[in-house]
Amino acid sequence: MAVNKYGIGEPLESEAIIARNPYKPPSVPSTPEASEITKDSITLSWNAPESDGGAEIKCYHLEKRDKDGVRWTKCNRQKLTDLHFKVTGLSEGHFYEFRVSAENEAGVGEFSDLSLFYRAINATTPPGPPHHPKVTDHTSSSVSLSWGKPATDGGAYIKGYIVEMKEVSSEEWIICTPPAGIQATRLTVENLKENAEYNFRVCAINSEGVGEPADVHGSVTASEKIEAPEIELDADLRKVVSVRAGGSLRLFITIRGRPEPSIIWEKEDGPLTERAQIESTSSYTMLVIDNVNRFDSGKYNLTLENKSGTKSAFVNVRVLDTPSSPQKFEVKDVKKDSVTLCWDPPLTDGGAKITNYVVEKRESTRKAYTTVTSNFKDNVDPPRIMMDVKFKDVVVVKAGETLKINADIAGRPLPVASWSKDGHEIEQKARIQITGTDTSTMIVVKDCKRSDSGQYALTLKNVAGSVTTPVNCVILDKPGPSAGPLSVTGLTAEECTLSWGPPQEIGGSEITHYVVQKRETSRLAWTLVHGEVKTTTLKVTKLLKGNEYIFRVLAVNKFGLGEALESEIVKVTEPYTIPGAPTNVEITSVTSEEMRLTWAKPASDGGSEILGYVIERREKSGLHWVRVNRDLVKDLTAVISKVRRGCEYEFRVYAENLAGLSPASDSSLTARAEDELLVPSPPTKPKILDHTKNSITIVWKKPLSDGGAQILGYSVEYKKSEDAEWIVAIQMTKSNEFTVSGLTTDVQYVFAVKAINKVGVSEQSPVSEPQSAMERKEEPVFDIDIEMRKTLIVKHGNSFTLTAPFKGKPMPSVTWNKEEVDLKARASIETTETCTSVTIEKATRNDTGQYIVTLDNGVGTASLPMMVKVLDTPGPPTNVKITEVTKDSATVTWEPPENDGGDAVKAYHVEKREASKKKWVKCATVKANTHIIKNLRENAEYFFRVRAENHAGLSEPKEMIIPVVVKDQLDAPEFDMKNFPHNTVYVRAGSNLKFELPLSGKPMPKVTMSRGNAPVKSQNQECVWHSVCFNQNTDFGYVIICFKKYIKIISTSFSPL
């Protein structure tokens, strides 16, 4: 707003602006990349941001994060200006990621993208080839391989193995394992082409990549491995195997054969007892009979058969027992003093031949028997069976018809006849009748049914022995139930696998297939799962999680659908639960920075493989458990870092499988995070820092290990180079630097240092390089940092000191200089052996400039320029003058001051004063170097002056010495003919001519035109002319002259009137 004597005028408003920094933070640098990795350091590099935000980048901020941790920590303590940095102090084996940001005057920019995880470990290489890969087995569709670990793992953990194969006729290798490999050292490659020929090779993998392959020697053909059956009988089985009655018979026989042979156990003189149990695998078979008796004696035959052949062997078994009682005891021919006794032999002899009989008697009135004879013998005939030849073949009877088997018998004494079926004695029922005489016996089964199928046997026994004749009978009928149980395996939330055995009663006809059905327990109706199952196993899918099912299987032959075999109720759920808790959690080693923890696997994995372990810790004084590891720990040991020195911790461990986390283990015993106290390791090799003719100064670094206790100090020793005995210079000093004095000039010495803690003294450090006691000569140099090279800003009236530390032997002379200034008079200068300074009191603008300090010691010279800027009011403007005057105004111009006071001039203050008055009046404050002062009194005399202004204030005024009279100025009229050589204008005949003739004059001149001293009218047939655009303020203008089709050269002159 402008102000005059009548008040404040209307305001002039600017556009809205926002007060803000004109720069922006820089954009993001590129992602950090590792170029060199060791077990405790990683060197990283990155590229500068694409945009610096308009201001120079001052530094970078690099941060790291341990994979097992959560927090980001800064890597650089000092200002980082390079595009690379070596990060040290890392934990060996840990994984780290990094990020970097740039900073300029406006602030810190955003962080870069996260780097890859880098593992702090010494340089690694891919592993070597696996050891001796070989073929262990092969079939028509598979090949089994095995191999050993590589001789070298390349310095990194072997992550797995890759197996590749190719057909011999092909050039392309195909990976048989997942891309990440497998951890096992064996593999069965399946789904191969039968009789095709293949090559195989194996590679190991570590963090550096895939190692060299190891080839399986030769090629392998995918075909069945054929081996004829073989039976290996122990030497004991080649003899008669004797077993006492009541004991257990176990016949274990090793077998082999490819394909796996069928196994048949038989007893030569009859069927195997129902107490016999047979267990068989591809490598052995075992016959077990518990609680044996005399009837289990005999010859047992074992038969193996596959498509390569048949193999048989036998074992003789004898059950050691007493003979059974004689049969059919009779008393005949009774006389007054004698009787005749007769009997039949026992049915069994107890494993040994009957040698004789013992006959005893007792009177009816007595209880005790007395021996009549102990060596009585007689002749006997063994029993015999005679059957129709038709009973040698299988007897076939349809269901509902009658089965009849008869035989003639003989023997002395008369044998006892008994009928059995499938090893069990037959009991007579309404449907089953057994009849017999002394010479014949017969069994009749009416209304036959499927269960009547089997092996019928007629057995005759007397004291001379026994004989059995089997008759096989088949009843044609629908099959019976499949052999149970109907087992349900592989249960998941959606599917299961059913398995069963073939029916024992097949109804005299081969089983063609099976029908499988299911029923939910909440329903009564059965639904079909599969109608034609050819095998005795089936995978059932699309079950509903949480539902309960019953399954059943029905065998089918040509006579129809057989009886059903049902399963137990099955609930469809996941087949596993959470694992049990880990055990034996123990802290095995402790330092001040980490603890090693071990534990044992849970007793139960819940039916699912243990995926890993979660570790928690708690401080002894705390209440809350804190999880230690972000990712699952795969091993049974872990190193827990980031513990606080002196704190006591306890740990517990959880196991995790697909079902979730186990209960927590029992807590470990507490342990304190502290190092074992030892003597420290030796300090580093001492270095020579300085030397004189009678002293040497050494310096060293602290030991790598303080032994777990604070370093209390150091012991310094020295000796002459040729001497053997060390001299203690000082028992203990806390400094890492020491000067050994009292030395002999020009004698050579060596030095060593020992570190001391509360446990004791370390070993001696490595011996220093030899050094002679002599004066040291060094060129002078300034010992300054970058901050001291910056311009020193000082406010007017304050004092300042410029300091320059230096080095040099001998001590250099010091000289301070400033152009056109005698510093000895203006300043005070102080100099010591290592530093010089100059101090100026009450600084003014004249103290601004460059100060130069120079060192000289005869060995060399050095100079250091130092800039000082004193912030003061500026000097007065220069060359103030009046460039234009009218009757009521004057134009003042000036030039900037020679000295701006250390700060830019922001404005000028213009003032006026009438010559007849003493008071100065302010006219304006402007930023330009010129100003028009208006509303002056005509013909009055005025003085004018100008002041410069900066942030420190106003300068002294610069005023005019001679006053200016305010009145109009008179200037004679004048034409500017510089563009008209010789005052002549040329034009082609018949053409028009038009030109402008500049003129000036004050006041505005009157213009006339003449030709040959004869006036020319302003408008005629030949010429038209007039004056225009005359500026009253500048007193300049021009005349426009126009000639039409003029045929002669015209010379014109003008005279103002």
From TrEMBL:
<dbReference type="GO" id="GO:0008307">
    <property type="term" value="F:structural constituent of muscle"/>
</dbReference>
<feature type="domain" description="Ig-like">
    <location>
        <begin position="780"/>
        <end position="869"/>
    </location>
</feature>
<dbReference type="GO" id="GO:0045214">
    <property type="term" value="P:sarcomere organization"/>
</dbReference>
<feature type="domain" description="Fibronectin type-III">
    <location>
        <begin position="482"/>
        <end position="576"/>
    </location>
</feature>
<dbReference type="InterPro" id="IPR007110">
    <property type="entry name" value="Ig-like_dom"/>
</dbReference>
<dbReference type="InterPro" id="IPR003598">
    <property type="entry name" value="Ig_sub2"/>
</dbReference>
<feature type="domain" description="Fibronectin type-III">
    <location>
        <begin position="581"/>
        <end position="676"/>
    </location>
</feature>
<feature type="domain" description="Fibronectin type-III">
    <location>
        <begin position="876"/>
        <end position="969"/>
    </location>
</feature>
<keyword id="KW-0677">Repeat</keyword>
<dbReference type="InterPro" id="IPR013783">
    <property type="entry name" value="Ig-like_fold"/>
</dbReference>
<feature type="domain" description="Fibronectin type-III">
    <location>
        <begin position="129"/>
        <end position="225"/>
    </location>
</feature>
<dbReference type="GO" id="GO:0031430">
    <property type="term" value="C:M band"/>
</dbReference>
<protein>
    <recommendedName>
        <fullName>Titin</fullName>
    </recommendedName>
</protein>
<dbReference type="InterPro" id="IPR036116">
    <property type="entry name" value="FN3_sf"/>
</dbReference>
<dbReference type="InterPro" id="IPR003599">
    <property type="entry name" value="Ig_sub"/>
</dbReference>
<dbReference type="InterPro" id="IPR003961">
    <property type="entry name" value="FN3_dom"/>
</dbReference>
<dbReference type="GO" id="GO:0048738">
    <property type="term" value="P:cardiac muscle tissue development"/>
</dbReference>
<dbReference type="InterPro" id="IPR036179">
    <property type="entry name" value="Ig-like_dom_sf"/>
</dbReference>
<feature type="domain" description="Fibronectin type-III">
    <location>
        <begin position="28"/>
        <end position="128"/>
    </location>
</feature>
<feature type="domain" description="Ig-like">
    <location>
        <begin position="383"/>
        <end position="468"/>
    </location>
</feature>
<feature type="domain" description="Ig-like">
    <location>
        <begin position="229"/>
        <end position="318"/>
    </location>
</feature>
<dbReference type="Pfam" id="PF07679">
    <property type="entry name" value="I-set"/>
</dbReference>
<dbReference type="InterPro" id="IPR013098">
    <property type="entry name" value="Ig_I-set"/>
</dbReference>
<feature type="region of interest" description="Disordered">
    <location>
        <begin position="125"/>
        <end position="145"/>
    </location>
</feature>
<feature type="domain" description="Fibronectin type-III">
    <location>
        <begin position="682"/>
        <end position="775"/>
    </location>
</feature>
<feature type="domain" description="Fibronectin type-III">
    <location>
        <begin position="325"/>
        <end position="423"/>
    </location>
</feature>
<dbReference type="Pfam" id="PF00041">
    <property type="entry name" value="fn3"/>
</dbReference>
<keyword id="KW-0393">Immunoglobulin domain</keyword>
